[in-house]
Specification:
The complex is a heterodimer of chains A (424) and B (90). With 424 residues, chain A is of the alpha/beta class. A 5-stranded parallel beta sheet of chain A has the order 4-3-2-8-21. In chain A, a hairpin with a 7-residue loop joins strand 5 and strand 6. In chain B, the strands form 2 sheets. Chain B has a 5-stranded mixed beta sheet. In chain B, strands 3-4 form a two-stranded antiparallel ribbon. In chain B, a hairpin with a 5-residue loop joins strand 3 and strand 4. The longest helix of chain B has 6 residues. Chain B is globular. The mean pLDDT of chain B is 93. Classes of the chains: A alpha/beta (424), B mainly beta (90). The interface between A and B is large, with 42 and 39 residues.
Amino acid sequence: MGEEANCRDVDVLVIGAGPAGIAAACAAAEAGRCVAVIDDNPAAGGQIWRGGPAKAGPESTRWFERLAASGAIVHASASVIEVLHPDARPPRVRTRSPAGVVEWRSRGIVLATGGRERFLPFPGWTLPGVVGAGGLQALVKQGLDVRGRRVVVAGTGPLLLAVAELLVAKGATVAAVAEQAPLGRLVRFAASLVLHPGKLLQAASIRRTIGPVLRAGTFPVAVRAHDGGLAVTLASATRGRERHDDIACDLLACGFGLVPNVDVARACGCDVRRGAVAVDDVGGTTVPGVWAAGECTGIGGLDKSLAEGRVAGLAAAGRAAEAAGFVADLRRWRRFAAALDRTFVLDRRLARLAADDTVVCRCEDVTAGRLRCHRSWREAKLMTRIGMGPCQGRVCGPAAEVLLGWSPEDVRPPYAPTPLGDLA
Amino acid sequence: MPDQARDGLVRLTIDGAVVESAAGTSVAVAVLNRGGLAAWRLRTSVTGSSRGPLCGMGICFECRATVDGRPHERTCQLPVRSGMEVRTDG
């Protein structure tokens, strides 16, 4: 039983073909190494550069060209299913794609697994048409037609503004952008952007289009079906009194920040601290031969991803001294990541939005009321099946952490749905 | 059927009806672009609620559909192909 895995040998295996993975692959391949990049999407680009060079904009174009010229090979639609731990360091990684199962042996691994959205439950959040903010951005980039649609964007983080701007550019009307962080913190964050001129320009352009509909200190408390579309109830506090506003719309795009994807890192045995892969200055994890870069080491945006990717790629290619030379530049982006963290801290009221009958685990339809009587993720998982469905806790895990303070356990292999025949 | 129609549109079947979608779009989007909030009902949850795509990036599994006989395909990560047969459970 089990298909014989096709074994491939490379110098550097990069897991994830978003900006961090692309930067790492370029650095390692340009240093003369044999580099393979794997990604579960049909094309390289990750989330922010989804769609490849044709759609992702001019800044990405030179990176895609550089990647194409570097000699690194991208294996798209490939998911990590297992990490094997023979005595070899770094570990061997097994992937599956429509082309089959591959076992990758390498001299160095760079984890560039990115981040995903954090979804928090509130009454009505599972209705069709309630989608992530990054989720709607991804769908629009995949060709979703939003012309003439009325959208409410809600949640937290700079992503909301980027999504709103994209929606307007694609012909949608953004009825409101509800950012839960209070205005004071947003203003301080905007002021700090003077340290990053590129970001300041981006912020100015966003402010022109979105400024008029931005509501700070505001978050959704409920959504319901209404008149063929949706009606969202937004709560905001003015001078100590909470005010509720009902807004009719076609779609609600809602996401509460990003969380690092650390499953593959955990599978490799890397330490994870405060939800992110623990790394040293040059991106080295606690496992020899494994480096990490980008959102998976901490949410910090595009510049941090590119900078960390370059450093980790050089380190994985054996160019430690060269890697060390770029570390000072990296600190600037890590400071930006810390500022993001401080600015978009979640309002405590968000943890209480879920009613007892609000679904928390979407795969198994486990409601908040059924979870609240348990003392830990593990206990709740055994008693209610939370985390046992197809998403394996990737959606409900971060929600449970905010609602109940639980630390979800590791995802178990296979890390992506795998037919029996693909498992040795 | 040829891989791609000459006008850059791909023709596929969704729940028995022929749909046109631009080459390079995802199956999830081809389903949603049929129009209206009803098009967002892609699947039915274990207790019978309608669900639609959430994350757009292959982690939530709400966009699952049967494609060419293969169940549980994450349609947000699948580009449309000419002649594809998609069955949703919404």
